[in-house]
Design a protein that fits this description.
The chain has 259 residues and is mainly α. Among the domains are: 91 residues, Methane Monooxygenase Hydroxylase, Chain G, domain 1 (Up-down Bundle), CATH 1.20.58.2140; 82 residues, Up-down Bundle (Methane Monooxygenase Hydroxylase, Chain G, domain 1). Helices cover 66% and strands 3% of the residues. It has 8 helices and 2 strands, in the order ββαααααααα. A two-stranded antiparallel sheet has the order 1-2. The radius of gyration is 43 Å and the shape is elongated. The relative contact order is 0.06.
Length: 259
């Protein structure tokens, strides 16, 4: 016992009534912090049973998505076919106006087709505002506006054409080009007064178009405004030249009559 006391107390310690060797403090490894005791094996978060239970409804989710996309694809095909028919009938109506042929029937069919298209696309607004549908309704609005002007009737509105406001304004801008064709036809016939009337209508349409100064995301009307302005300037110059020529012709006829 006396010999035991000769050693450092850091090296020998009393444990359960007996002296045992303990390494010096500087040789003791770093103390590991206490951690809560966990009994059993650590669970595998991605075990086969848990994965199977997590994705067991994946087929149902994908099935619902596939069914909705299939329906949308079918509706899109119907909308494409209907849009082509509307554009074709609208073009036939305008062509009939210029040729002096029947334009009422194709315009009426185009409006009926637009009503069917509206009912088909109900519940699919992303397709209704897509490019090909907007273009077809724009053609219909142009034909309906030009037809009303040529027949001397009140102008139809967007609802009459089953069209959006943007489609109607774009169609109104395109109507300026068709009115120029009417004006040139009147000049060819020597009817300067009739050409001047069409020019006045073109200017009235342009005056209302320039009121709309919205971003292109709402309505891309800037290019239509520029084209309408250019067509009006050309038509105004041609009508002015024809007016002077008509006045000169009248003076010559007057002098010829006196002689």
């Amino acid at each position: 016992m006396h010999e035991m006391t000769a050693f450092s107390t850091d090296e020998f310690r009393m444990v359960l009534g007996e002296w045992v060797w303990v390494k010096p403090f500087h040789e003791t490894p770093a103390k590991v912090p206490n951690r809560p005791f966990r009994s059993g094996r650590r669970p595998n978060l991605f075990s086969r049973p848990s994965l199977h239970s997590a994705v067991k409804n994946l087929r149902d989710i994908i099935g619902d998505i596939e069914a909705r996309l299939d329906e949308k694809d079918e509706v899109r095909e119907l909308a494409l076919k209907s849009s082509r028919a509307i554009a074709r009938l609208s073009s036939s109506a305008i062509h009939g106006l210029h040729k002096g042929e029947d334009s009422d029937a194709p315009l009426r069919e185009a409006r009926e087709e637009a009503m069917k298209l509206h009912s088909v696309l109900e519940g699919h607004p992303e397709l209704y505002h897509s490019g090909f549908v907007e273009n077809a309704l724009q053609e219909l609005c142009e034909a309906a506006i030009v037809h009303a002007i040529a027949r001397g009737k009140p102008l139809p509105g967007p609802r009459d054409c089953e069209a959006t406001d943007a489609s109607y304004l774009l169609g109104l801008g395109d109507a300026v080009g068709e009115l120029r064709r009417f004006a040139l036809e009147e000049l060819r016939r020597g009817n300067v007064g009739g050409a001047a009337d069409h020019l006045k209508t073109m200017e009235d349409i342009f005056d209302v178009l320039v009121r709309f100064d919205y971003p292109s995301a709402l309505v891309a009307l800037k290019r239509k405004q520029d084209v309408a302005r250019s067509l009006i300037e050309k038509t105004r110059g041609e009508v002015a030249v024809a007016t002077r020529g008509k006045a000169l012709e009248d003076k010559i006829d007057g002098l010829t009559g006196r002689l």
